[in-house]
Amino acid sequence: MKIFLDTANIDQIREVNDWGILAGVTTNPSLCAREKRSMRECLAEIAGIVAGPVSAEALSMSAVEMVAEARELAAIALNINVKIPMCVEGLKAVSRLAAEGIKTNVTLIFSTNQALMAAAAGATFVSPFVGRLDDIGNDGMAIVEDIVDVYDTYGIESQVIAASLRHPMHVTQAARAGAHIGTVPYDVLVQMVKHPLTEAGIKRFSEDYEKIKHL
Ligand code: G3P
Fold it and tell me: Beta partners for 2?
């Protein structure tokens, strides 16, 4: 499973990019709002740092407006794809954008049927939101498993981005479920690097080396 970073924070993106693990970035208006910068300026900077795909969200309500907005967003950089919300207007926009070769990420997916329709319309990526389903007492990861299973059955090429991941176990479960990509908040990625036995092991090796380094 590829790892994307779910943030619009430039410092976090630069840091994780340096780790050598970063395959892409997803943003949304809430994440961009935290940075208190123009979304366009922020996206251009992110797309210049990361080699892989960067998702930028379209906020229009009609298919015609979504397509126009998506063209503008996609023109910012070659690696930008456009997040389109799952709805009838969104499906129309995705099919028109697919015909133009503009990559899309259908977002706010909460069911397998929504994922089937997004793929049929020509979505490059689909983003089921795991944590938000868990929040309302559903099993968010079961939707990821089901979408991957159905896509495999029919040879569907849209890639599944497990999104709204909130903790390290979500990432492991998304990988086990066969998600193509997991988009992960920075704090969760930092937690994933660490293990108490690794920390203890580094400390002990370092202390033991101190005892013999003069020899
Ligand atoms: O990738 C979607 C993500 O940003 C939503 O996460 O935690 O707001 O449900 P969350």
Answer: 181
Report d(CA 151, CA 124) in Å as an integer. Answer: 13
Q: Say if residues 39 and 29 touch (Cβ distance below 8 Å).
A: yes
The CA distance from 137 to 82, in Å, is: 30
In eight-state DSSP terms, residue 20 is T
Residue 148 CA from chain centroid, whole number = 16
State residue 4's pLDDT score. Answer: 98
Q: Which of 2, 36, 83, 203 is catalytic?
A: 83
pLDDT at 61: 95
Q: Is 2 a catalytic residue?
A: no
Rg (C-alpha) for the chain, rounded Å, is 19
- Calpha distance 174→140 (Å, rounded): 10
CA of 163 to the centre of ligand 1 (A): 6
User: In 76-167, which residue ranges form alpha helices assigned H by DSSP?
Assistant: 88-100, 112-121, 130-135, 140-154
Whole-number pLDDT of residue 187: 98
| Average predicted confidence (pLDDT) for the chain | 97
DSSP secondary structure code for residue 72 in this structure = H
